[in-house]
């Protein structure tokens, strides 16, 4: 039986990776709030790659991701007054995008249950990634996305930011504006729900 | 069917208590050799169910990494910026149509549609404030020169665009609404006569005149938990968007205690022996049932058709 803790590969702080896109962002936000429309256009150009890749990885569809991010930008435009501190704009924009991603999940949820989903994931856990074909990888990704569509928003967003986007627990807490302890417990709950959703075995009667 | 060895109630409670810590352990929350880490490892060494839980968490994380490593084609930030601007401008247009101070909502009912007209550049703005200068932005459906805001030279004005140009939607909000709906009908008729072209110079956005169809409720998704049958139900798990996930009865074994108690597929399990199951996992609910033991009598509180019911069931004797 495995005893070593399964630690994730240390990932550099996501905010430092986003250095280029964050530089000068608070100033652009201030200018936009002061009425400079061109500043908003610059913000859109600068952050779209990141928000789009978050939406695309989570939803798995370019069309859905495009819709979600467009909607998010319109909402960001409308609700910029909610941002009290321009330094927190990036985290807030990510949350708005996640909210739109949740909406896309709801409108595009598949009815088909992910049969044998957990078995497939277990197989993948033991397989070297390089050995999987592109279609196998896509199938697994689809299974996980279907499971994500079945859990509630609050827990899904923690799972997406931590496990798919690869943010640390502290970064997830900062992005969502919640205590780090809450991130840990919500992540645990999300995993239980995903496992419940994915685990289907025959003849299981209580 | 495999029959699992029933754990003692104390052991199950311990597993429930440690379930969250196993997730933390998976994330490497505690350093190796720490008291918390050792406690979890000791339990994993003697509990196959929890060891399986950890394996499942690893599998889920692996799948998530697969998703993370998916090559995402780079977004066209410039195009996104243009599209967002187009949408924002079309909303300004909507506000103009509402006539300041009118207080009349165009979209009061399903049949009362509100649309915004987006007219491609090149058509002269009509009187009455219906001017629109928006490039159409549907990839693959519009020629590049139209997307950049230019009408191809020599392209005649389409009937739909002419209707928009000639339209005279006046300041009276009540009349404006009727004029507007008439205009939309005229456009649709012109398109029906002439055949719809993707670039006829007019783009209707916003809600259509059709009543909005309600989204069908999501189909229940079921997962079941392995266990020796005591009650005779197949439990399902459904996570409706925005709501706490619920455990429900997906199936009932004919002739079983559940069948005799009157449980039916679709019933939502609310409590077992007055213990609420809200927010509990599928395994936890099954565990509550099994904890009573073979031959025991349990009270099941369930929801059906918006009402709450309570029944007693005598669990099957041990096989």
User: Which percent range fits the helix content of chain B?
Assistant: 25-40%
Can you summarize the main beta sheet of chain B?
4 strands, antiparallel
Q: How many helical stretches of chain B? A: 9
Low-confidence stretches of chain A: 1-18, 110-116
- How many strand segments of chain A? 0
For the biggest sheet of chain A, the summary is: none
Computed over alpha carbons, the radius of gyration of chain B is 31 Å
Provide a descriptive summary of the structure in words:
The complex is a heterodimer of chains A (206) and B (319). In chain A, 69% of the residues lie in helices and 0% in strands. Chain A is an all-alpha fold and 206 residues long. In chain B, strands 6-5-7-8 form a four-stranded antiparallel β-sheet. Chain B has a two-stranded antiparallel sheet with strand order 1-2. In chain B, helix 1 packs parallel to helix 3 (48-68). The interface between A and B is large, with 77 and 80 residues.
Keywords, separated by commas or semicolons:
heterodimer; A: 206 residues; mainly alpha; 0% strand; disordered N terminus; B: 319 residues; alpha+beta; four-stranded antiparallel beta sheet; two-stranded antiparallel ribbon; 38% helix; flat
Secondary-structure topology with pairs:
The complex is a heterodimer of chains A (206) and B (319).
Chain A: H1 14-17, H2 19-22, H3 25-33, H4 37-59, H5 62-78, H6 89-108, H7 117-126, H8 134-150, H9 153-164, H10 169-176, H11 180-198
Chain B: H1 9-26, H2 35-46, H3 48-68, H4 77-97, E1 115-119, H5 144-147, H6 159-166, H7 173-194, E2 202-206, E3 233-238, E4 246-252, H8 257-261, E5 268-272, E6 275-276, H9 282-291, E7 297-304, E8 307-314
Antiparallel strand pairs in B: 1-2, 3-4, 5-6, 5-7, 7-8
Helix pairs in contact in B: 1-3, 2-3, 6-7
